Amino acid sequence: MAAEIDFQPYLQSISSHYAQWWQLYTLTDAETKAQQQNEPQSWKTPFDFGLMVQTVQRDRPLGSDGPEFESQSSKKKIERFPALEGIRKYVKEHRQVLLVGRPGSGKSTTLARLLLEEVQNSFALSPPSPPTFWGTRSSDAPQAKLKQTQSPPELGDLGGRKDSETHPESLTSIPVLVELRFWSGSILDRIQAFFQGHDLQLNRTQIKALLFHRRLLLLMDGLNELPSEASRLDVAKFRQDYPKVSMVFTTRDLSLGGDFGLEKKLEMQPLSEAQMQTFVRTYVPEQAETMLRQLKDRLREFGQTPLLLWMLCGLFRQTGQIPANLGEVFRAFTQGYERNLKADVPVESDRRWWPELLQELAFWMMRGVPFWAEKLPLDVEFRVAVSKTEAREIFTFFLQNKEAQAKGTAQKYLDDLLRHHLIQSNGEQVEFRHQMLQEYYAAEYLLSHWENFSEPEFKRDYLNYLKWTEAIALMLALVQSETQAERLVKLALDVDIKLGSRLAGEVRLKFQEKTVGFVEALEGQDWLKIEYLGETRSEKVTPELLKLLKAPDYDMRRSVVDALGKIGSEAAIPGLLKLLGDHDYLDSIAHGEAWQTIDALCKIGSEAAVPELLKLLKAPDPYMRKNAVEALCKIGSEAAVPELLKLLKAPDPYMRKNAVVALGEIGSESAIPGLLKLLEFRSSIVRENAVEALGKIGSEAAVPGLLKLLEDPRSIKYWNAAIDSLGKIGSESAIPGLLKLLEFRSSIVRENAVDALGKIGSEAAIPGLLKLLEDPRSIKYWNAA
């Protein structure tokens, strides 16, 4: 008799475990997280940044045949989406997608949120309601219990239709998070381990059957963290074996591990200035204005990723000071963690050795070859986890001249650090709580052991390996000696000019005039030197680049614009704005490529660019107008709201839609009346985006208009978006209208109404929810209620 797979325990476990997804941004230890999970929490969190992604264009390679080199793919329009929306869209269209982002940009957290939302929104947590694919429902989708046989079953056994009769939108999709840093054996092993960790025992035959019938959505986190070439080959083979299975991969850098041939790529976007300011004001409300004044234009440098912004706010809360650079941020954070968070915890080991033990652990993990086998060839891979046995050996090696019984005490140190510091265990594996922490502690090791390395050795074994780049950058930020900083940058330039240019801008600000001067003195074509200067991201080169904006060569000017955008200095804004006003420059570009200048202003992210961008809203070129709207959206200034409101009456529906999205991102309540009028607009895309924008603004002023929409049966296609927005707003005034929907015929509407009531969190909803629990016909909504 065919056995059945009951996914209920698995779905319940996911829903519970990831309910407080925002804790993934933080570096709180396991004990504290466990305590927090038992405390009542509001659904609202300052970590709900509204992260964005955009499609990735192929960069022009350094060393190509001049600035005129441009691939056909690079001419394609860049698209921007909210992170989860973009992933859903591209997985539905292309099956397999790569999500790229810098460390701490929210890649892993985005996958965790996607996992949670696919479980909560697409799956009913009790039979007989069927799982769904990307939030759609199908009358012939399988039930929560799926039949399974010993051999790959027919699709009928799984409750679905044959491939020829099925569209991707109607396929059942069970989400599975595969953390590649814990590689052991194969992808199938990691899938099996994740199911097992969430209360579901499946054998390999069952998993292969689910893959064969495309019943899994695989969220593959950390391509760049795969431990070996063999593991990368296994992943590549897995993709070839299951080309129709939906998969989302993440990686931190396309140069670390490559793109695995994944054609469709999305890139995490840095936080806008408005998003950063909102987070600071929410997270440290009493100190927010003081902190923002101290940061000034350094907010972009320190706060453009969620993790770094959280660390910075925590530091400012403790000290009231902003560190000088990123290396100092990590040093102050780790020292403050030891000093303030865990000082009163009784431990069995000597705290004074904790920092150096973590440095040793980070260094040997990254080096890839254990200290007892140093003569072996170096491992090019970035190891993010080691066995507890190897961690104990590393600690024993360090403690042998400091503790009488080093071998016996190493275990005590490991236990204390796992319980009370910035490392954690996953089964028998040990890892740092974030890869950036591992790189910071490795940087401290390199700094303290610098004199032990010969120049040839440092170039060969460290500068020559991509995995060390971020650690060396952090190390340079901590170097106190100008002579040492110059020496390191020269060594890097000998190895790779692009690397040396990057590191020239990582040294302390007072040293950058000389280190950046090394890049300026390089021989070669002017446009190539400009790109290298952009790689420094140093404000020291901004004045020289601004002079080149007057060059007669248009292509060189475009290279300068790109470089200024990378550097992100507000000092570049007047020159870029003047360029936008140069009609000869604009007229010379046949295909609307002045968007590069707008994009540079957008990357800088300062409100000083807003007045000129508002003028471009009236430009004759529609592409220019569109990019101006997107730039205003990313900058997030309320000064743009009046002009954007005027665009709500524009004849072009796409301009209206872009204006609506921008108003939602800016989040000003002054936009609400204009957005409410759009709820009766004939264009469906405009109406739906208006509903979503009202939810993002989050004001009670929008509630009456959204409730009115829910009373109009002709607008039923927008009801779920309206319900979601009411849940986000969280006003008790929406409860009566949402309670009425608990008797509506559509199961999706009823379930979303229950979810919204839960988000509002008011006792006024309890009688209606209890009534729902008394109705056996509504059993599919009981868990949500």
Question: On the 0-100 scale, what is the average pLDDT?
Answer: 78
| Helical fraction | 40-55%
Task: Identify the strand order in the major beta sheet.
Answer: 3-2-9-4-8-7-6
Q: Which descriptor suits the 3D outline?
A: globular
Rg over CA atoms? 27 Å
Structural class based on helices, strands and sheet pairing: alpha/beta
Q: What about the largest sheet?
A: 7 strands, mixed
Distance between the termini: 35 Å
Uncertain regions spanning at least 5 consecutive residues: 30-44, 59-75, 124-171
Strand content: 5-15%
In short:
The chain has 785 residues and is α/β, with parallel strands linked by helices.
List keywords for this structure.
7-stranded mixed β-sheet; alpha/beta; 12 strands; 785 residues
Report on the architecture of this protein.
By secondary structure, the protein is α/β, with parallel strands linked by helices. It is 51% helix and 7% strand. The chain is built from 38 helices and 12 strands. A 7-stranded mixed β-sheet has the order 3-2-9-4-8-7-6. The protein has a 3-stranded antiparallel β-sheet with strand order 10-12-11. Strands 1-5 form a two-stranded antiparallel sheet. Strand 11 and strand 12 (429-432) form a beta hairpin. Helix 33 runs parallel beside helix 35 (719-729). The radius of gyration is 27 Å and the shape is globular. The protein starts with a strand and ends in a 12-residue tail after the last helix. Mean pLDDT is 78; it is low at 30-44, 59-75 and 124-171.
